[in-house]
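With this grant's support, we have settled on a layout for protein records. A representative record follows, to show the layout.
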Amino acid sequence: MATDTLSKSLLLRAGHWAFHHGRAHISLSSVSLIGGFVFDAVTLKRIDMFWENFWVVVHLAVVAFCIYWVTREVNFGPEREGWGTKVDRWMIVLLQFFFGGLLSTYMVFYFRSGTFWVSWPFYLLLTAAFFANEQFKSQYTRLEFQLSVFFLSLFCFLIFILPVVVHVMGRLVFLLSGVLSLGLWWLFVRALRGRARENVSRRIPTVVASSAAIFVVINVLYFLNVIPPLPVSLQDASILHSIQRTAAGTYVVQAEKQGWLGFFRLVPRFHSAPGEPIYFYSAVFSPTSLNTDIIHEWQMYDGRRGWVTADRIPLTVRGGRDGGYRTYSAKSGLRPGAWRVNVEIPTGAIVGRFRFDVLAESGEPAALKTELKD
C-alpha cells in the first residue's frame, strides 16, 4: 500500500513535469502542480511513519546525486551555455523535479502543525521556495542556488525527524538538528570540491553566505516561536458544556448547537450561565514514544491591552495515538467577550489555537448536542 502510494505520487509529479516542459505549459502545469500538492496532503499520513520519511530520504539522496553529477569542471567553463551533455540537462530537470517533491512534502507536514497567524513567516518561506522551484529553472545551473535549496531541505527535514528518532523535543534538539544539517551539508560541499576543485572553491564564499543566511533565518524564526512545533500537531479541538470519559476510553461531550447561521460564522458562540464551567477539549498528535507536555493558555481580548492571559493549565500528551492524545481543561466564570485557547508546548511554540465568543445566557438554556469523541 505504501509503495503504491509512492508510485502514484511519482507518476503525478512526472505528469506535472511533462505538462510543465511540454506544449500544454500554462494551464495543465498549474492543474498538475495543485494536484500534486493535494495528493501529498491526502496520502502523507503520520510524520513518524517509515514510508513517509523514506520518501523524504530518497528525494534528498536523488537531489545530492544530481548536484554531484553536474558539478564537473566541464560545466563551469565558457561552453557552459550548452550545459554539458544531454545527461547533464536531464539531471537538472530531475533536480528541479525532486526538489519540488521535497518542498511539497514539507509544506504538507508544517501546515498541519502550528497556526497560520503565528507561523505565516515560515509558511511564506516554504511557499516562496516551492514556487521558485517551479518558475526559476534557469537558476538550477547555478551551484549556489542548488546548494542553498539543498541546505534548506536538509534542515527542514532534521527539524522534525530528530525528535522522532530521539523521542525528545525542545530547544536543545533543535540546535542539534542545526549542527547536523551544517555538518552533513559541509561534508557534501567538500565532496564537490574534490570533483571540481577550482570552480567550487571560487564559489565557496557565495555558497557559504547564502546557506548561512538560511541557517540564521530559520534559527531566528524558531526562537521567535514562528516555526510550527513539529512533530506534534493539533488534530481536534472544541469548546464544550460538558465532557465525561467512559469506561471504554471514549469521551461523551456536549457542545452547543450553532444553528444554520453557524455555518457562516468564523467564530463559534458559547452561551454561558453564571458559575457554569467551560471545557476546552484538544487532541494532540505526538509520535510513538515521544511524550511531552502542553499548555492550554486561556486568553480574553481587552480593547486596550489586546489578548490578556487568564490562565495557563499544564497537561501531558502521550505519543503514538493516530487521532491524537485527548485531554481537556476547564474554566469557570468567563466574562462575556472574545476568548481563545492557545495550545502550546513548553518552549512557547503554538501547536494550535481555538477562538470562540462567550455570550451571557438569557432566557432559555442553550440548545446542546451530544457527541462521542473516539
